[in-house]
Sequence to fold (192 residues):
Amino acid sequence: ITFEGNVPYLNIVDFNGYTVKVKGDIGYEGWINGTVEVTGKFKCEKIFEQSSCGIAEGAKLIAGEVEVSSNGYYRNTLTVKGNIEVNGDMTIDENSDLIVTNPAYILVKGNFYGLGGSDGQPQGTLEVKGDVEYYGYFPTAELILSGDEPQNIHEISTGYVIPELKATNQQITTDTGFWVDILLSDITFEGN
Fold:
């Protein structure tokens, strides 16, 4: 099914092997167990209650942007067991969570801004081609920095660890410093 324009709210219980395409933005709640392609912004958000979105194992979300935001009162959570490809930025606000399990893979071609899951047991992989700004537990077990331009890592709250870091981009900067548990590649820092 293809939607022309924005879809304020959608929840599909069973995709039954089909793909949903949205030529615009979409507000979604519930689990994606198929493929969703969004040219605009995918928002995991509900106005009056707590929202929970998920990408099931084997499922895929392709979007221009991804945003998980709260309404100021309820926490919202995006749980990823499948794959996400974001052509722009991915934002998880301070009152929301991103929980990633194996074998999940998230590719962000823009910047990643966010908060990890609250349990501190990250899994899966996050590959980012832009800058990374995070606070709280890092949401994945592995971070891959693969941009073509300099990439900055900015840790808002100190003391949280990036479990594993791999840099295919050798133009890394940081204005705050950050902690890494295991380095998986050589890394070069640019700057003063």
Observations:
- The chain has no helices and 21 strands.
- The CA atoms of residues 130 and 168 lie 13 Å apart.
- The mean pLDDT is 88.
- The first strand starts at residue 2 and ends at 4.
